[in-house]
Amino acid sequence: MDHPRISRRRLLQGAGALAATSGLGWNATLAQGTPIASPFPSDSDTPLSLWADGTVRTALIDFVTATTTEGDPSYLDPAERIAVFDNDGTLWCENPLYVQLVFAMEQVHALFGQHPEWASEEPFKSAVEGDADSLLAQGDYATLTVMNLSYAGLSPDKYIAIVADWLATATHPTFGVPYPELVYTPMVQLLDYLRAHDYQTWIVSGGGVEFIRALSEPAYDIPLNQIVGSTIETEFSVQDGEPKLTRIDQVDFIANGPGKPVGISHSIGRRPALAFGNSDGDYQMLQYTTAGDGPRLGLLLHHDDAEREFAYDRDSIIGRLDKGLDDAAAHGWHIVSMKNDFVEVFGS
Amino acid sequence: MDHPRISRRRLLQGAGALAATSGLGWNATLAQGTPIASPFPSDSDTPLSLWADGTVRTALIDFVTATTTEGDPSYLDPAERIAVFDNDGTLWCENPLYVQLVFAMEQVHALFGQHPEWASEEPFKSAVEGDADSLLAQGDYATLTVMNLSYAGLSPDKYIAIVADWLATATHPTFGVPYPELVYTPMVQLLDYLRAHDYQTWIVSGGGVEFIRALSEPAYDIPLNQIVGSTIETEFSVQDGEPKLTRIDQVDFIANGPGKPVGISHSIGRRPALAFGNSDGDYQMLQYTTAGDGPRLGLLLHHDDAEREFAYDRDSIIGRLDKGLDDAAAHGWHIVSMKNDFVEVFGS
Q1: Closest partner residue to A287 among B80, B225, B243, by Cβ?
Q2: Domains of chain A
Q3: Which of B227, B266, B290 to mutate to test the interface with A (most CBs of A within 10 A)?
Q4: CA spacing 20 to 30 A to B266: which of A54, A66, B25, B134?
């Protein structure tokens, strides 16, 4: 399907190259980057045109309309219009492996020479051996430890620049394109639609906050300060009169499962009105969101589209969706079918 | 000096009463509260009218003008217009004690019956005994532990409501008015001025993020999600089918001294353009801010006004400003004289 969005590949390559060659920090580069033109018709024409007619599209439009129409009993003050989105598997492709895990396993392999202890210490042993299944079988904490600890010792800005360069060139094993091409365009359209109605859009992800900062502005138009992610300890020091921040080798906070509402509370300070996830790691975020008084909307993206993406749910190690499928109806959450609700999946 | 700002006392009492008697969370109450009308003339009339003519006022206006005028070599993209402010002693009065410490010592005293171990365990022992000097002599960590751990076991929303009720009634020992009346109106005017030029204004404070949320919107018009503060561990649980967040009895993060640039990196993800503090606890925040490339401005408020507020600096336990005074010139930071640069201190 033809889609006039500026190529993310081109955008990221350009920005990555700039960051690598100029004295500017990557953040400055991103901020100075070409703004992404909105590729979608105005709301009054066809809201959510990349969403198929059906229950989900209607629910989204009705919710946004009601909460933003003065006088409607569901009207929300703009300060309360907070929408939170998981990243992996909700905004972009997470299969066959979380993108940050692919990156981290490559880095662990490259840095193994400096860490001989990794040969025998899990979870790094599995990562060194390239055995993702073994790593994932050790659970979320082990996986997120490898994802978040790679490249300790760098400044956040340097780490983000390295991630951005990697994202510009590394390609997905099945689709053969750089990962930022595998953002779900209907979801990007939904983010735009929400912001056009004065919703703040936030990412709340178990992934590392600084990994996500390498793509949040160009891919989603989400600013660097609207990301609740996992963090590693960071140290401030002054070297030769120059103040420095350094990522150090210790998990600080993991924003997955019950960590999602906790991170929302610490960083946003307000219960969201809308939460969108895709796995049981998002369960508590939806639960916390939709238990609030007033209008609330919870949605889970169901990966049921083997033809255009992947089909997986209850038995998948990546993005397992099991309890969420069982309990969605009781909570009033919408199960979004990628197969039926997405007019297109990716932009190309 | 006559000042048409809506009375903060009235605003907080009204909101506190609502939060106490309605089923609404405090956040919802705040969001629905009366918006504060801007009491200041438009920029083209008299920018920063509550600031005396002089170096500091000129520096502020020149900086904001240059960084927001397209074509100026110092022009900053709006995404880079981040201004960070300390709270205690920078935006409101911190003497003779940090407001949150007054609150916390009252709570510790009230809760002592449930914590007999506090009779012998510092830093609580000093707090129980009402001996602020002894507590402060134990240093930042001990002080912040008492400040941030009081009222563990409550939800963040309930805690914020209790703080707001307390703020509406407790009075300052010298000035005899509720603490929110002791916000520095020239600083509030500066926040307004910056936002009118598309600056994001953030609080970065060693105080607890949820304590500050009880006043940030009515007092400063700073939203709940633009506060980097100290946090205590928070737990997610489900009780009788109801998801709950609970503040638990363990410090998570202390956003003071070197913690300020770390908190800025985690939450904002971008080096600020402007940093304003008043004590050596803000030193690293200013250092990190002004070491960046491009236009940067660092300022320290010097409490030299014994007549209208207090005079203290190098020898004060509260808000000690010593190293900052020594090094300001070398760093190019402005020392702001409360006595000479503030046309008025408080609104009344």
Answers
A1: B243
A2: 8-69+82-341 (3.40.50.1000)
A3: B266
A4: B25
Facing B265 at nearest CB: one of A32, A156, A293: A156
Q: Split chain B (348 residues) into runs of 10 and give each run's mean pLDDT.
A: 32 33 30 40 73 98 98 97 98 96 90 90 92 88 77 89 96 96 98 98 96 97 97 94 91 92 97 98 98 97 98 95 98 98 91
Q: In terms of C-beta density within 10 A (0-12 exposed, 13-18 middle, 19 or more buried), how is residue A306 classed?
A: exposed
Residue B220 DSSP code? I
Residues of A in contact with B284 (CB under 8 A): 236, 243
HEC string for B148-191? HHCCCCCCHHHHHHHHHHHHHHCECCCCCCEHHHHECHHHHHHH
Q: Based on C-alpha coordinates, what's the Rg of chain B? A: 20
Identify whether the C-beta of residue A261 lies closer than 8 Å to the C-beta of residue B245: yes
For the record, the structure tokens of B232 come out as 């205590």
Angle subtended at Cα B235 by Cα A122 and Cα A271, rounded to the nearest 5 degrees: 115
CB pairs under 8 A between A and B: 121
ipTM for this prediction = 0.86
pTM flag (> 0.95): no
Strand pairing of B200-208 and A274-277? unpaired
Helical packing angle, A99-111 and A140-149, nearest 10°: 60
CA distances from B248 to A200, A252, B113, B156, B254 (A): 29, 17, 18, 10, 15
Q: Which chain A residues are closer than 8 Å to B214 by Cβ?
A: none
Test B210 with A294 for CB contact under 8 angstroms. Answer: no
Q: State yes or no: pLDDT of A199 exceeds 70.
A: yes
CB contact under 8 Å between A32 and B77, yes or no, is yes
Measure CB to CB from residue B245 to each of A31, A235, A262 and give the nearest one.
Answer: A262
Are A269 and B27 a contacting pair at CB < 8 A? yes
For residue A143, how far is the Cα from the chain centroid?
A: 16
Answer whether A212's CB lies under 8 Å from A205's CB: yes
Element holding A295 (H helix, E strand) = none
What number of other Cβ atoms are within 10 A of residue A152's Cβ?
Answer: 16
Chain A residues in contact with B200 (beta carbon < 8 A)? 225
Cβ neighbours of B268 in A, within 8 Å = 224-225
